[in-house]
Structures are given as structure tokens and as C-alpha cells.
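As a point of orientation, let us examine one representative protein, giving the amino acid sequence and C-alpha cells.
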Amino acid sequence: MPRYFFHVHDGGSVLDDIGLELPDISAARTAAIELTGEILRSEVVGPFMDHLSWQVEVTDSPELGGRPLFVLQFSVAE
């Protein structure tokens, strides 16, 4: 099974150095959506307090510069 890495970027980067073994990219999309829900629920002041945009980038590498498979982008428009 391939391993997918879920990096969060919000002005800085939180790199996923463990990743998840999942059967396919569809399962990786589902995991990325679930991760996003956890981030939105867990932030005390909300993920948009310091930055009006952030993203979850799913790649094939635990390091920056890996092959991006897809990106979930979030932003606040005023």
C-alpha cells in the first residue's frame, strides 16, 4: 500500500513525518478531509485567527519537495 503524507501550511509548515498507509488516493482524500475537520474542531481560537488562508497538502514524501498529489485549500474572504 502506498504511504501518504499530510502537510499543513499556514504561514509556516507542519510536516507529517509518519504518514498513513492507505489503499488509494480516494482513501487519502477522505483522510485529508477528516484531518481538516479535526484541525477546525481543535483550534482554541480557530485556524483563521493568525492567517486568512491555510492548506493541507498531501504528498508522497515526509519532506518538503515531495510530489504533491492534491491540496485542500481554505481561506476567509472579507
